[in-house]
Amino acid sequence: MNKSLKKIKILLILIILSVASAQINYTGEINPFIMTRTADQSQINLPFRLLSLDVGYSKGPLDLKTVSALEHRYNTSESVYDLREIYLAYYPDWGEVKLGKQIHAWGSADGNNPTDNLNPYDYYYLFKLGVGKKIGVWSISTKLYYGDYQIEGVITPKYEKNRMPYGEKDFPLALAEQPKIEYPVDDELEFGFRVQTTIGENDLGFSIFRGNDRSPSLAAINYIDIQGQKPQMIPQLGYRTTTVFGLDFVTFFGDFTIRAEGAIFQTKTPMIKLNLFKIPTSLYEFQEEVTYSQYVFQIEYTTSSDILITAQLIGNQVGSNSNEWYHSLSRELIEFPNPEFHPGMGTPFAMFSDQVLLFSSSGVLMDDRLELKGSAMLNLDKKGTMINASIGYSPWINWKFELAFIQFSGDNNDPENAFTKMENFSHTRLGLFYNF
Amino acid sequence: MQKRWLILFSTSIIFGQTGIEIAKMVDERKIPKDISNITKMVLKNSKGKTRTNLMVSKSMDGNKKQIIWFLEPKDDKGVAFLKIEYDNKDDEMRMWLPAFKKIRRISSKKKGDAFMGSDLSYEDMTSRDLQQNDYKRLDDKIINGKDCFVLEVSPTKEAESSYSKHISWIDKSSLLAVKEESFDKRGALKKKKEFSYNKIKEYYVMERVFVEDIQKNHTTEVIFEKIQVDMGVKTNIFQEKNLKRLPAIN
Fold this sequence. Notes:
Oligomer: heterodimer
Largest sheet of chain A: 18 strands, antiparallel, barrel
Strand content of chain B: over 45%
Number of helices of chain A: 2
Structural class of chain A: mainly beta
Structural class of chain B: mainly beta
Strand order of the largest sheet of chain B: 6-5-4-3-2-1-13-12-11-10-9-8-7
Helix content of chain B: under 10%
Shape of chain B: globular
Largest sheet of chain B: 13 strands, antiparallel
């Protein structure tokens, strides 16, 4: 017992000495805000990150990094701690190795990245910029720096899906309840590979990713036909497997910066693994194989007054689509209506439209004290617009007050239009930021 | 008599130097192999309101390689900037944005853009290539008690400069620039700069830069603190991956 205690004491001293000699860096933000609906001034009650904290321990070539958040809801006064990232990073001369729960960032464009599918999205934070809308995944990544080349490989052994706002009355696109997933992901292993190089003043990247869709899709139907009753078709959901081939680049044309990326997705419903002795006679499997593409083309310009103006064209297009229904037992092909295809991976804005034009502008005045931002999204596929504007004022260093508003306009004749559904989400936001 | 002729001859050689010769002397001045410092940048607008940025900087090869990590204000903490100047290809400027977990490439042609909202542009932070400028010697002047060469420096078309010319006052005894005026493409005075130095080891190292943007009525004061020279900064620190790691701050 005494020997064990002595060993524990020595270990603790070593840990304390190690931590004491390590460099600790932290940065954080406290950001309370309220959102009120434009239509009736009612408060929108959705969870938000009240506190964000990044802590890093560095010792030699090793870093231990954590990113945490405290998510709060006003209506229930509940606060939930979210460890968004925790990973060990090793920086040898040739590159970097990271192991743990982490958020990756691929692609060249800003905010909408079809080639960036390593992490699922948190749809509660869909309109947050940068990595704020992503969910960390347990993974190992290695990046090799070789001359003008960067070669990166990522392996994710544990699957994570999108976090969807099921049952949230205040989120217009949410489903009433979380659907039951009959066929969860069987093969959780996902992997990706990316090569980036610099040619002159241009950066060029190629990537491949193989993983599971982040949103469920139809995998089978349980067809219940009881005599005297209307037949029921009960959908059963699963996750497609998808391979993504991506290309992204950054180039400069005069005073303009051009960032673009495109990805081709090959998605397929996996074979359902059923207990051979327990296959229901009423089960019909759906096999779908779809090739679709997404692209983002971005052009940006900075004026002489340091105002940044950006235009983005975001598109989503289905190429080939083959699907069939067959009976699980007899494997006989059946004619059933095919569901509409929805991508389970890629840029989240593909759920709004097949093609949108996004303009944004930002500038600072009064030595960064006043920050003005604006953006407008135009649906090119159907009728629909989104306008977003914010003004931030910093009376003291590290403090900022922000007033923002967002307005959605859809098509009154098309209630299924995503922009129409989002009209009730139009709101004003008043918030405070404190950075430390 | 011979001694007088020698003094007269030597004096005429010194004071007969052309602009390019003076520029070469300045360029060949002994400089540290590497410099590390904490940089404080105070921005002041026309109303007297100030904003302070704090950074850690490491550079080598006469500032041809530089990496800067931002510490304050706190919402900028973690942002980092890497600049590598090349002789035979386009310079590289990259910025690490922690909120996006991405490294953004900045065009070397955007050198005229302001650095972090200050009155210093990216061009002001890059060294001037001797071959990409024309030099004309103007009348010598005395500035703050210092006898100075005055050079008119005109970037060639190859330099792709955002300036049409600079007037530089160079202390004859130390060959250090003490003052500079920079003119925009229309030939109008754009910026006035003043430089102060400190002797560390056998080098004169810049310890303060004061920049006044005449057209915007705005100033930036850059103060270099905790300056360390020739500390053996390794070349491999000027890599993208190091943008993501804040260095030890002593």
